[in-house]
Amino acid sequence: MTQGATKNHHRTAIKPSAIRWAVMAAYAAALTTSTMTFLTYATVTSGVRVDFGVSEASVGNLALLSPLFLVLLGTVSGRFLDRRFDTTLAVGAAMIAVGPLLRLVDPSSYGWALAGQVLITAGTPFVANAITKYPARYFSAQERPTVIALLSAAFYLGVLLAAVTGQPLYEHGGITLLVAVHAAVGTAAGVALLIMVTVVRVPVAVVDPEPAVARSHLRRTRELWMLAGVMFVLFGLFNAFITWIETVQDHLGNAGFGGPLVIALTLGGVTGAITIPGLAARRDARRTALIAISVVQVFGLLAFAATGNHVTLLVLAVVVGFFMMAALPIVFEWSEIHAGIANAASATAFLTILGNLGGVAFVLAPQMFLDTPRVILVLLAALSIPGVLAALRLPRTPTPHLIAA
After folding, report:
1. Closest CA relative to residue 138, chosen from 9, 27, 7, 301
2. CA gap 103, 87 in Å, rounded
3. Burial of 16 from C-beta contacts in 10 A (0-12 / 13-18 / 19+)
4. Whole-angstrom Cα distance, residue 355 to residue 361?
5. Residue 273: how many CA atoms within 13 Å on its side-chain side?
6. Angle, CA of 157, 36 and 322, to the nearest 5°
7. Residue 37 in contact with residue 186, Cβ under 8 Å?
8. What's the CA gap between 377 and 245, in Å, rounded?
9. Residue-wise over 284-320: b if at least 16 C-beta within 10 A, else e?
10. Residue 302 pairs with which residues in a beta bridge?
11. Burial profile 235-245: b = 16 or more Cβ within 10 angstroms, e = fewer
């Protein structure tokens, strides 16, 4: 009898923790591959447009569907994740699993590419906006900063994988190999998450004892808007950098150097997203970290404008990325503390909407200055200043918002 009790205790004490981390790994893989698959065509636009028989702009529009759906479906996805978490996440997982397969029906058809892209990007909000809700449900307060940081790094890893796999796959096997490999990886990750959510029952580690806060009140708090301001600027900078750095370097006489800079930025970013948020949380220095991150962007972009040396540019890209991408998990974790577990996904969705609007604004802003590349970098540095001001207006430490619905 004692032996049986011991076995049962071992099962309940150890196994649930292992399962939680396994589901976290499946969720991280889904974040990585959904990002990679919506960017499938981004690095080979000029070749793919010939395969599709469409303009380069039409191919570019495939990548723009992701921020569009994150804005349009952000509020809805956040609300459903807060109310029916498992069901909503399962729907999103199914969509990002099926989407890449649709593109395989005819890899050279723009129509099938568009259909698959719509399914992937429409499903993404129902997966991505769980990035704070999942850690809040299944991990302790001490573990959450680490989990959110790892999940944020998974998103940036998807950008990196798209950048390093697109061109080689296309050169070796054309659009068919590119679409097939991305479909295999994306579908496998989507199915794994779907199985984890629907088949594996993960014990909830933390139950929020407080009533849900009124979302209308939550979105009127200055604290959440200041976080949104930081998100607007830093996500905007990231989008602008990966969109225009190739053009900037081409005009500065560094043709083809934009790709290595994006890879350097992302490698630095993944490292920063893993290391800085946990350190900031342990020292209760989230506000200080966001201020420092925002200041680094201003001076980093000015330094980009001042040099054309390849080694210096690579170092700058790593440093700027290291700080830039660390902001995302810090902002997300702060919002979960502020909103509470019950409304974590709604707060995340609000921040994601503002971040993607920043992405659009920062990508559009430099278009009048494409022939003067250094002006673009100075402009982006100037546009980064409001991010510093927003970070400065944050309270010293996150404050829970306790208005009952």
Report:
1. 27
2. 25
3. middle
4. 10
5. 24
6. 25
7. yes
8. 9
9. ebbbebbbbbbbbbbebbbbbbeeeeeeebbebbbbb
10. none
11. bbbbbbbbbbb
Half-sphere exposure of 136 (CA within 13 A, CB side): 28
CA distances to 148, 246, 258 from 332, rounded to whole Å, are 8, 30, 29
- Three-state SS string across 327-386, please? HHHHHHHHHHHHHCHHHHHHHHHHHHHHHHHHHHHHHHHHHHHCCCHHHHHHHHHHHHHH
Secondary structure element (H or E) that encloses residue 118, with its range: helix 110-128
Whether pLDDT at 233 is above 50? yes
Comparing CA positions, the residue from 43, 60, 59, 61 lying closest to residue 51 is 59
Task: Kindly report the backbone phi and psi dihedral angles of residue 72, in degrees, each rounded to the nearest multiple of 5, phi listed first.
Answer: -65, -40
Report the alpha-carbon distance of residue 238 to residue 39 in Å, rounded.
15
Joined tokens for residue 95? 């969509």
Q: 294 vs 35, 160, 285, CA distance in Å?
A: 25, 22, 14
**Tens of pLDDT along 57-114?**
788 788 888 888 999 999 899 989 988 888 999 999 999 999 999 999 999 999 999 9
| Six token digits for residue 316 | 């700058």
- 32, 74, 55: which is closest to 345 by C-alpha? 74
State the Cα–Cα distance between residues 64 and 114, nearest whole angstrom.
11
Q: Look-up: residue for tokens 């099926």?
A: 98
Average pLDDT over residues 329-334: 94
pLDDT tens for 333-379 read: 999 888 888 888 888 999 999 999 998 889 888 888 878 889 999 99
**Cα dihedral 339, 239, 150, 134 sign:** positive
Burial pattern 131-152, b for ≥16 Cβ within 10 A else e, equals bbbbbbbbbeeebbbbbbbbbb
Q: Are 103 and 116 in contact (CB under 8 A)?
A: yes
User: Whose structure tokens read 């981390």?
Assistant: 21
CB 337 within 8 A of CB 360: no
Q: Both tokens of residue 17? A: 């923790």
CB-CB contact of 123 with 95 (8 Å) = yes
